[in-house]
Amino acid sequence: MCGIAGILRLGRGPLQDLDRKLSVMSRLIAHRGPNGHGNWTAPGRNAGLTHRRLSILDLSEAGAQPMAAPSGDCVVHNGEIYNFVELREQLQDGWKFRSATDTEVVLAAYDHWGIDCTARLRGMFAFALWDERRQRLFCARDRFGIKPFYYAIVNGDLYFASEAKALLPFLPTIETDRAALAEYLTFQCCIGETTLFSGIKQLLPGHTLVVENGVVSIRRYWDVQYEIDHEHSPSYFRRRLREIMEDSVRLHLRSDVPVGAYVSGGVDSSLLAIIAARQNGADLDAFNGRFIEYPGYDESTYARAATDAVGGMLHVEDIGHEDFHRHIRDVIYHLDFPVAGPGSFAQYMVSKLASQHVRVVLGGQGGDEIFGGYARYLLAYFEQCIKAAIDGSYKNGNFLVTIESIVPNLGLLRDYLPLMREFWREGLFGAMDDRYFRLINRANDMKEEIAWDELDLAPVVESYRAIFNNTENVRKQAYFDGMTHFDFKCLLPGLLTVEDRMSMAHGLESRLPFLDHPLVEFAATLPPDIKFSGGRLKHLLKEVFADEIPAEIFERRDKMGFPVPLKEWFEGPLNGMISEIFATMKERRRPFINADAVLANFGRTQPFSRKTWGLLSLELWFQAFHDRAGDYRSLLSEDQANI
Length: 643
What we know:
Blueprint: E1 2-9, H1 18-28, E2 36-41, E3 47-53, E4 67-68, E5 74-81, H2 84-91, H3 102-113, E6 123-131, E7 136-141, E8 150-154, E9 157-161, H4 178-187, E10 201-202, E11 207-212, E12 215-220, H5 234-252, E13 259-262, H6 267-280, E14 285-291, H7 300-310, E15 313-319, H8 321-335, H9 343-354, E16 360-362, H10 367-371, H11 375-391, H12 417-423, H13 432-440, H14 458-468, H15 479-504, E17 509-511, H16 517-523, H17 528-531, H18 539-544, H19 551-554, H20 566-571, H21 575-587, H22 595-601, H23 611-626, H24 629-634
Parallel strand pairs: 13-14, 13-16, 14-15, 16-17
Antiparallel strand pairs: 1-3, 1-9, 2-3, 4-5, 5-6, 6-7, 7-11, 8-9, 8-10, 11-12
């Protein structure tokens, strides 16, 4: 895990002030790699790469980056190629390896397979490789977007980096992208390649970017396909899931430094910690955060049950309102964007704790999306069961879903009555995309606070529908596969932004075994009567590993998803702080925001509403980047300001 950045002249001739520009970019991503750094420039000085190193594999200088090959090729790589050992064995006859790193395997794989090498890589990665002979820049991002890659074209030069902040000094102005803001206000993340910074784009997950002869080409190399497997028996799915899960964890444990685990108290993170400890044959350091000022915000008892099951050491961070006051601006700065929910603050604090003990942690992101852990997926399954009972012979794809399969567990829906009312507010069996949009649309809660007449929401809805109704990926009329597909493509990347930034803020590598593409591809073939048998969320995962998950975790129904007591804080000890921040919003007349409505309404939100968080983090984002635009520009001058 590291930080990468670089510059390429799209036209002819050398880059101006290349060394200084690389140094500025390196400085802005320094937190991502505390163990080393280096710059490299092409012989023609038309390209330059910089790297910040977090040493995980081959801790010697042989693993340093930028890493150059005898051919003149050079690469900067962020992430881990988990199957690098197997690839090395395949490539060793044609490549003389000088290190024991996965980075050198990327060089060798490109030398052997060219730009098609990404199909062979199993892991989380973002890299940029300069091909000296072809004068080609080849960049790639992993299949799910675990590792970030941002780029901008300014005055005929291409700039790229692991974090958008490293590109800000080169923009002519720092401005908000209007279309991206509409997406953010709707989903609390951007669902396409645009970002909230005008002029900065992200390379989408599963894509490559190639620059040759001044032409920038972007291509998709992977996508998940929901092809239901109706040929195999339940016992086959159970056996295969155990095999693939065990293999994923085994590969994710490859490291030359100790590996720990986040343990939230839920099934996903607990299971990963248990499997990892069993495979490692050693005690595991595990990490949890709790809020002890108010009842209902402490799940550490469940986390302790998981670590006790394997004899691990649980480290718990007690988080209070003073921590929020002290660190929330750091959180927004490291995020680069006001993305996702307040769990990012909690993860920042737990990552800070973990970094004091280990360099690598396992996390459970992705488990809900691939195994059906969200209540909204269950509602879609329930509706299909009802429709099957009414139609009699109704088939959804190649499998039959019946009301009998869910009746014994209808009581599980009791906790989701508000969600059901919203889902079916305009009736059953209507357009699924309309109803799902209502569930995930965060803008419904901000009708007074945002000047909606100044923003165009039509493209947002159009983009949403194009992805949700994409029949190339979801070929059968499977409601929950449509949901899962959209979440995977659009909402999960926002959560992965948090995962990457909050860990890397402390020089910590977070690995996600659920987001291993063989496992994801397998999960996409699961029939819903296997995935949701009896109307139980994550049924197959729980069934397969029931003998390993502690009973109190296996049976719990109150998993809260790391909630933060924002309402209590904002009505109590942090009221003055929040009022001051929103007063600044009014004073500086932020575009598209009705600051008077924000000030009037922020105390009226529901306990777990994201409205106040969304508006608060948006204002702190304006303060961190827009209000300090001059500081970023000054980094290119002799008297560099502090950032």
